[in-house]
Design goal:
Number of helices: 3
Shape: globular
Number of strands: 0
Order of helices and strands: HHH
Helix content: 40-55%
Bound molecules: iron/sulfur cluster
């Protein structure tokens, strides 16, 4: 899967740490950036396809992505 969308991410240039939060508050902060991102869908699909376990991707937390994967497997 191509990663060309990454160059257009709203998080480009921001601290990577902000997207690998350790608290719920940190997740919300990252999610707000993702909500304004033009490549949110591509980002989420990439994370799901590659089974990326950690961080906020496509506006979804680790727990939310696990839930989506479980639902798609059912
Ligand atoms: S959806 Fe969020 S994590 Fe993904 S590229 Fe956009 S800002 Fe970055």
């Amino acid at each position: 899967m191509s990663r060309s969308w990454m160059a257009y991410g709203k998080c480009a240039g921001k601290s990577t740490r902000d997207f690998f939060p350790s608290t719920g508050l940190g997740v919300e902060k990252a999610r707000k950036v993702c909500q304004e991102c033009l490549v949110q869908e591509a980002c989420l699909n990439y994370a799901l396809s590659n089974r990326i376990r950690y961080g906020v991707w496509g506006g979804r937390s680790e727990r939310e992505r696990r839930r989506l994967l479980r639902r798609s497997a059912a």
